[in-house]
Specification:
single chain, 433 residues, alpha/beta, Aspartate Aminotransferase, domain 2, 2 domains, seven-stranded mixed sheet, four-stranded mixed sheet, 15 helices, 14% strand, globular, binds pyridoxal-5'-phosphate
């Protein structure tokens, strides 16, 4: 391919590969699915832009895989971190900022009556599942193909995101003892869920879903699907867990659950609530949360959980989101991208489908509707890889996987959108040659 990452990126990446497997600390950062390594090594982020170690600038639609809803280095968030860092970075005791963040989450997420912090989304989901098993006394987790719920053992059964991209959907090292209690069903298919719960519902601890899937690309639920999911789950005596690690505070100031009118028993949270620093959380119904140690017998812990700097960054991010309410503007910009990309692709005879919810969307390189993992996988990997490179060459940074979203942040303006559309036009023209 014509495009080559800069010399300094290459040199850094060479160093990385000697000491870090594959040179990356998360497989989703690798460029293996889009024409190969090395990936671009970034030096800094500012607003809607990235700058790499060679001094090249990119408009960023990765948003660090979701957390950066305000863009890079938002001044309010940065100042809040600076103001707090002199007090120390970790105490291992209860502290005001984690309590304030917990109060903020409880006040803004419907059905979140109590919350416990973790350091990552992975732990949040893992803990919510353990809690559901503790509460119900049952072993089985029902989840959906192509959704990504972090990298705990059981969640790597038919997972999406980075796991699907590198083809480790059933990771080595996950024992059968774990896998046998995880059932993965096609998303958006209520009949299969009904059938499954009719057969083995009395063994099911929880049904776990992203209410709007973000990890096989953006895939919204069909009308009525989540409501029926909730009814069937409760009929089986199981708990409904929504993994809102991506979706909470992405589409409005609160959970996707309340936008969609279906409130789960438990939530898993992450990404935006840490404002770009490590954070996760799980919580929900008060009676269920009473099972969590030290109140109850479900053990879960974390040296770094509720980290003061993460709490401060999360609080500052949520303050800006509440005060400035950028959601409609973000969605309008994303809509401009969606409509124009569809038009450009048509002009150059390139079949695509776009799924968009608010400020997040995915361009699938195929023309049929995408509503589950099977239809998402029809997106042409070779075309996507070429498109990714062409866009990179033109200064647009997209996630290096056909199963990820483009995230428009509150820092993007019409100017970045117009530049992006110019790059799209040239890239689709190239693709059609
Ligand atoms: N759940 C969802 C929906 C996610 O998208 C992710 C990460 O991408 C996770 C859980 C895991 O979060 P983390 O990477 O913070 O462990």
């Amino acid at each position: 391919m014509a495009y080559e990452v800069g010399e300094k990126s290459q040199a850094w990446f060479e160093r990385a590969t000697r000491v870090i497997p594959g040179g990356v600390n998360s497989p989703a950062r690798s460029f293996r699915a889009v024409g190969g390594d090395p990936p671009v090594v970034m030096a800094r982020g500012m607003g809607p832009y990235f700058e790499d170690v060679d001094g090249r600038r990119y408009i960023d639609y990765l948003a660090a895989f979701g957390p950066l809803v305000l863009g890079h280095a938002n001044s309010h968030v940065v100042q809040a971190i600076k103001d707090h860092v002199d007090e120390g970075t970790l105490w291992g005791t209860p502290a005001p900022k984690e309590i304030e963040l917990a109060e903020t989450l409880v006040a803004s997420i419907e059905g979140l009556e109590q919350v416990r912090f973790t350091s990552t989304g992975t732990e949040a989901v893992m803990s919510a599942i353990r809690l559901a098993r503790a509460f119900t006394g049952r072993p089985v987790v029902v989840k959906f193909e192509g959704a990504y719920h972090g990298h705990s053992d059981g969640m790597l059964v038919k997972a999406g995101s980075g796991a699907s991209t590198v083809g480790t959907q059933d990771s080595l090292g996950v024992p059968w003892g774990v896998v046998k209690d995880v059932i993965s069903l096609p998303y958006n298919d209520i009949a299969i869920l009904e059938e499954t719960l009719a057969k083995i519902g009395d063994q099911v601890a929880c049904v776990l879903a992203e209410p709007i899937v973000g990890n096989m690309g953006i895939v919204p639920p069909k009308d009525g699907y989540l409501q029926q999911m909730k009814e069937l789950t409760h009929k089986a005596g199981a708990l409904l867990i929504f993994d809102e690690v991506i979706t909470a505070y992405r589409f409005h100031y609160g959970s996707a659950a309340s936008l969609l009118g279906v409130i789960p028993d438990l939530y898993a949270l992450g990404k935006i609530i840490g404002g770009g620093l490590p954070a996760g959380a799980y919580g929900g119904r008060y009676d269920v949360m009473q099972y969590v140690s030290p109140l109850g017998g479900m053990f879960q812990a974390g040296t770094l959980a509720g980290n003061p700097l993460s709490s401060v960054a999360g609080l500052a991010t949520l303050e800006v989101l509440q005060r400035e309410d950028p959601y409609q503007r973000m969605a309008e910009l994303a809509k401009i991208l969606e409509e124009n990309i569809l038009e450009i692709a048509q002009e150059f005879d390139q079949p695509i489908t776009i799924n968009r919810v608010g400020s997040a969307f995915t361009v699938f390189f195929q023309e049929n509707p995408v509503y589950d993992y099977t239809t998402a996988k029809m997106s042409d990997p070779v075309k996507f890889a070429r498109f990714h490179r062409l866009m990179l060459e033109r200064g647009i940074y997209l996630a290096p996987s056909r199963f990820e979203a483009w995230f428009v942040s509150a820092a993007h303006t019409r100017q970045e959108i117009d530049k992006t559309l110019e790059a799209c036009r040239e890239s689709f023209r190239e693709l059609s040659r």
